[in-house]
Amino acid sequence: MTGLLSSLPSQARLMVDDSIVEVPCSSLSVGDQIVVLPGDRVPADGIVRAGRSTIDESSFTGEPMPVTKEPGSQVAAGSINLNGTLTIEVRRPGGETAMGDIVRLVEEAQSREAPVQRLADKVAGHFTYGVMALSAATFMFWNLFGARIIPASIYQGSAVSLALQLSCSVLVVACPCALGLATPTAMLVGTSLGATRGLLLRGGNILEKFSMVNVIIFDKTGTLTIGRPVVTKVVTPSRMDHSDSRQHFDGSWSEDDVLKLAAAVESNTIHPVGKAIVEAAQAVKSPNIKVVDGTFVEEPGSGAVAVIDDKTVSVGTLEWVQRHGVGDSLLLETDEELRNKSVVYVGVNNKLAGLIYFEDQIREDARHVVDSLHRQGISVYMLSGDKRSTAEYVASIVGIPKDKVLSQVKPDEKRKFVSELQENQNVVAMVGDGINDAAALASAHIGVAMGGGVGAASEVSSIVLMGNRLSQLLDALALSQLTMKTVKQNLWWAFAYNIVSWNSNCRWNITAPYGDNANAINCRSPYGSEFNWGGNKFTALKIQIFLTTAASLQIITATATPCCHGYQQ
User: Fold this and answer.
1) Radius of gyration of the chain from Cα atoms?
2) Does residue 343 sit in helix, strand or coil?
3) Residue range 192-215: average pLDDT?
4) Residue 334 pLDDT more than 60?
5) What is the set of domains in the chain, with CATH numbers?
6) Measuring CA to CA, which residue among 470, 529, 542, 540 is closest to residue 190?
7) Which residues of 94-125 are buried (b: 16+ CB within 10 A; e: fewer)?
């Protein structure tokens, strides 16, 4: 957590009239204008109002590549401004920043006990009584029988003093704290390490449960895909193969013309499809044209229409352009490769000028993630509200079998499917990003939300991938598995030490100073809870092994006391 907190600056450059004043970040308010120079850390969440620069958001998202920021872009506190000067309007200052939320949530997560931790605490609680009973049994054995078995010359003093010394040594070498600390130290390191890699984990219990997952369900839109449509093809009369389709087209428009007209209309909307059309037109450097003032009309879910140079241009569904005088209800035939994509019709007056096809791009790492999960023996499903052909098309690209694809499912049906898998004794994780995934995310054993998702999905999720990269799911899975591996190693060392020390002490005389040293070493060993994850080595696990081995060597050395040598002779 120290690394996260250190990424937040203490001072900010506040614009006051025509001057810049350095003030504590805690004094910033919503609406303040601050200046961030190259090399500075952003002091508060906000929106860029002036300037252009690249920002290093790795401390927030775990993504090493810088991100370009320009007027209108959102910036997060703790990110580093790499080159240009930015003027930022504060939206979330102080503890309200996204980084502050992460720190707070991680602290809450570290206070939640995993089931294995509760078991270890329970064992450690009974451990004290067991040690006391063993100490009493040691005293009774050596007082009643042990002193009679070995010659009196081997030890000094009476049988009672020998029995008392050995029983006290049992109490000294016993280490219940090693059992109690074996789990929480590993969980603390795991959740903190996850936060530095853009993984928001809501508790140590999440790490334990996620390590046992055998079924992972993906939502399609925004999870396996980027959730942002892009134009893939424009169809005009010259591209049509059927004469009965061409008769409904106005053949005077080229592909660039269709994009130009559609972009002029859609530039007045905020719909993702409209934005995709505008971006496609800008990519081919189509000249900007404007609609006649007061003629733009939009109907959500249908399309938009406007007048451009005395021409009525309608953009939207087939039913929408037909309502504005275009053709009849003939469904135009297109290439087979386009049947799995969405389409927008562009009409000019009473003729179709063209068709614009869209595709929600599949994430570059989706196939790698699915293949990796399959190699680990994890079953992968995909749920989608889209039509069957589109869902199967995406599934075929990312490597999910058709028999594990459910299409045209509603939010409640997603939740029911998760419950059905759980009833078959599966440990289920659900990965999604939208409001329609919230019910399924909450029902699953582990809900994983993409960082670019809406608040409803993030709030009910157990894990949030802050970097909005699907590959972070593999990071979270690896982290959970390594954490539980370290927990088991810690518990093994703790039990091994106590068993060896008890056995040695009950049979031979391990003196109190030696036993106390071994106890101290063993109680320190569980703090060495760290991992070799993502190519980064953390030395504490090595320290743990070294210290616990040293404890065992201390016991062996301790047995070589004069009384033991005398007995061996």
Assistant:
1) 34
2) strand
3) 83
4) no
5) 2-93 (2.70.150.10), 115-188+479-568 (no CATH), 199-226+364-477 (3.40.50.1000), 229-361 (3.40.1110.10)
6) 529
7) beebbbbebbebbeebbeebbebbeebeebbe
- What pTM was estimated for this model as a whole? 0.57
344: amino acid identity, one letter: V
The structure tokens 């157990």 sit at: 462
Which of the residues 32, 56, 219, 475 is marked catalytic?
A: 219
DSSP label at residue 453: S
Q: What's the pLDDT tens digit per position in 341-372? A: 778 889 988 888 889 988 888 899 999 999 99
Which of 117-126, 148-157, 167-176, 204-213 tops mean pLDDT? 204-213
What span, in angstroms and rounded, lies between the C-alpha atoms of 175 and 494? 8
Q: How far is CA 466 from CA 4, 59, 61, 183, 196, in A?
A: 14, 10, 5, 26, 10
Q: Is 56 a catalytic residue?
A: no
Angle at the Cα of 263 (from 259 to 264), degrees rounded to 5? Answer: 120
What letters, b where the CB count within 10 A reaches 16 and e where it falls short, cover 416-443?
Answer: ebbeebeeeeebbbbbbbbebbbbbbbb
Torsion region of 113: left, alpha or beta (phi above 0 gives left; psi -120 to 50 gives alpha): beta
Mean pLDDT score, 101-130: 60
Find where tokens 């074996």 sit. 182
Q: Which residue has the tokens 């999604």?
A: 432
DSSP assignment string, 28-67: --TT-EEEE-TTPBP-SEEEEEE--EEEE-HHHH---S-E
Cβ 551 vs Cβ 522: under 8 Å: yes
Supply the angle between the helices 176-196 and 512-524 in degrees, to the nearest 10. 20
